[in-house]
Design brief:
The protein is mainly α. 68% of the residues lie in helices and 6% in strands. Helix 2 crosses helix 3. It starts with a strand and ends with a helix.
Length: 99
């Protein structure tokens, strides 16, 4: 399981998610999802901008945690819920457009 360390990196720098998203010129919602390990697909541009802004490597930005570890299970559950909510929004939008 790929885990984002953005929360820890911003904490050390005393930077908010909003401030960071402005600095890297990326949507707040996408940065928030990376920060909270909710993101399912990570734009390479965001990885690049993050590493440049925080002067870190992708290896410092991400770590691998075992899928069956408590942290891995928690990340998987958060991502699963996020994906379910996204699917519900798509279905609702489709129903509105077809109705």
């Amino acid at each position: 399981m790929l885990k984002s360390n953005l929360k820890e990196l911003l904490y050390v720098r005393r930077m908010t998610i909003r401030e960071f998203s402005r600095r890297v010129d990326f949507r707040f919602e996408t940065v928030r999802q990376l920060y909270n390990n909710e993101i399912l697909r990570i734009p390479t541009e965001l990885i690049e901008k993050t590493c440049v802004e925080l002067n870190c490597t992708p290896g410092e930005l991400f770590s691998i945690v075992p899928d069956d570890s408590p942290e891995g299970i928690k990340i998987a559950e958060v991502r699963r819920k996020n994906n379910q909510q996204k699917q519900k929004r798509k279905q609702a939008k489709g129903a509105t457009n077809n109705g």
